[in-house]
Amino acid sequence: MYIDKVKQEMKIPEKVRIFDTTLRDGEQTPGVAITPEEKIRIAKRLDNLGVDVIEVGFPAASLGERKAAQEIKGLGLNAKVCGLARVLQEDLDAALDSDVDYIHTFIGTSPLHREYKLHMDQEEILTKAVDAVEYIKDHGIIAEFSAEDATRTEFEFLKNIYTAVEDAGADVINVPDTVGVMVPASMRQLVGDLKEVVSIPISVHCHDDFGLAVANSLAAVEAGALQVHATINGLGERAGNTSLEEVVMALMATYGIKTNITTELLVGTSELVSRITGVKMPPNKAIVGENAFAHEAGIHVHGVLQKAETYEPLKPEMVGHTRRIVMGKHTGARAIKSKLDDYGIEMNEDQFCTLYDQVKKLGDKGKMVTDADLQALAETVLGKP
Ligand code: KIV
Ligand code: ZN
């Protein structure tokens, strides 16, 4: 395959860590609020799924956030339990009081953030970042540092702040594409350039404002990023974050890169998060959408019934999904016959032609023919009550 030729020219890692931020950035989805009890349910599921880090929230934000973080930590999960904190003393203390294993601390670095939000110059920002990382490390906790809006920050400053936090003891540097302005080529270049100046693992956090979060995360991995931030169902601020299910399957199935995710649990986890947050997935959502493994066109259905790989890039069971053959105006005779076989319905050729015409007529009226519709039509054709 062409991808294999491309892979040989890249320095792609063997394994990528998944940092899940469903309970933090995902909860920042407009209109979504998750109670501490619901956070615990989701955290347990994320742990079963195999994510490496669960960012459980922003402990400084509320008592509920701290309570949820403490309770999740008390579950003794395999995943590291992480709290978000600005580089402020009160935020860092709130995270430490929540007893998390890991603190993700951040400060804005771009000219826009410096001028309009923080009213600080580069030097002040760098000092605060270094102090925060040192404070976290003095408490024996894993420290990840994010330069918020990294992708709109001058590269010189980005290099300085990331090398300074590395010297201060940071374990991971994270590169947030806070407003999703990157394209794969620029992300690949940026991570490659950062790899020249830091030796600790590089992580990326991509937003989906232009629908490129997954592609940009993959490009970062192509350049050597070892960790990807993602959310279940791509939840998050505005257009959301990198979708965990999409990036994991693309890493594993397309590049052959390992993660610790048990992929068979992806659909169930997506459904749980969708139920709790009330954010429904569009039917055509990759990997977990209702139609992700549904086939309607006669040519496709024929292909899939002969050999599933003709029109499926991966087996639905691999992600906990099931294949569906959908009836409509594009349906071919073979698909209808296969459904009748599944139901154990037998009919002669004339009866089948009548049934086939009826399915097509309904399709032409813009209707989808459900399994129940097909069974009812078949019974009418066979003259059964
Ligand atoms: O998008 C972003 O920049 C963030 C930071 C807190 C890392 O979510
Ligand atoms: Zn974010």
From TrEMBL:
Cofactor or coenzyme needed: a divalent metal cation
EC nos: 2.3.3.13
Biological process per Gene Ontology, one example term: L-leucine biosynthetic process
Gene Ontology MF terms in the entry: 2-isopropylmalate synthase activity
Similarity remark: Belongs to the alpha-IPM synthase/homocitrate synthase family.
Subunit structure: Homodimer.
Task of the protein: Catalyzes the condensation of the acetyl group of acetyl-CoA with 3-methyl-2-oxobutanoate (2-oxoisovalerate) to form 3-carboxy-3-hydroxy-4-methylpentanoate (2-isopropylmalate).
Protein name: 2-isopropylmalate synthase
Gene name as annotated: leuA
Residues of the full protein shown: 1 to 385 of 511
